[in-house]
Fold:
Amino acid sequence: MPDGSILLTVISILLQLFSLSIGIYYLAVGLAGFLPERERACITDKTHKFALIISAHNEEKVIANMVSSLNALDYPRNKYDILVIADNCTDNTAAEAQKAGATVLERNNPSLRGKGYALEWLFEKLYDNEQGYDYISVFDADNLVDKRFLIEMNKKANQGYKAVQGFLDSKNPYDSWISAAYSYCFWTVNRIFQQARHNLDMCCELSGTGFILALDTLKQLGWGATCLTEDMEFTMKLSLNGEKVAFAYGAKVYDEKPITLKQSWRQRVRWMRGHCDVASRYFFPLIKKGVREKHLSCIDCAVYLVQPIRIIATGIITFFAYTQTFFPDGDLGFIQLAYLFPESAVWTTVWNIIAVTQLLYTPFVIWYERREISLKMIFYYFTCLIYNFTWIPIAIQGLIEKNKTEWAHTEHTRAVTMEDIEKLM
Structure:
């Protein structure tokens, strides 16, 4: 075998072991999401006061419905305020938000664009806390919020949690194959990522919207999360400072998903740029703290940060596997782990179990979450496989462009109300 082929053999085995080991780890941790949640004992019975914050840039089509859903929450109305940041808007966002009943704060700073900067601008105004807020809660303008959101979040606050992420649902799951793929991914993540980590007392992930933060904790640490994925950045900051993000399954927020591949590509490239940026700054500090202080939660956060590398590794593995299948006479030196021990029946059985589990895991979680099955759901599951493959070039582009920080606005047009959502349930 030529030296180049030997090198490729070694690389192929290492890439497969890397990808497979993380996959098995996620599978094992994800199973904890099906365990019954053990509720923490309450340390107070307070009705906390919340500042509900919406950062909006040119969202005149959807902002009124979002504010209306917040006005309809089953929570004492004197215990929360709705604050809308009209951030560098050139449309009627401010007027529509004010008409719907929100307090509007207009911000104009074209040189510092993006949600992270807008939030930091408002947080600094809230630190003197003249209004007596206990927690802030962050939303996107295209969201709709379940009536029990603050009830469920107040429970977690009374259990002593300083940061809590709510359940992210979809308000347009079947608008297109793209919105369906997003919805399937979010339904799955809620169960096998967020709920699993909450059950294991590890750090969940802030997801950009539908979360709460204790104002005193926010003031103590400072926001400072102004990259393209400000939610991920602040999650890592919390973890490094000994705080864990909890998960409130019953606090539901409905989010508008992109409906075209072009919209989705732009959004996910932005996510990947931010992900790679955060990974470059937080991976080693998290590993160092996790190993030194035996904090499994920090190590788990660090493992999550290498996800773009795993996606790229999986793409490389897939490319060479198919090349080998269609051109069997070409000795590239690539060896699939499944055939590394061809005489081992045990290894073959284990490999087949892993393959079948990966294929059925996601549809099982979707069924478990929705308790429904239909031809439409089955069809969109197979188109979701195509969506998953698009992550490979997106991860490569995000890694290459991780230093690009320009923010791109995602236009939202689905003016859905909570009444529309309830009809679909």
Summary: The two ends are 60 Å apart (CA to CA).
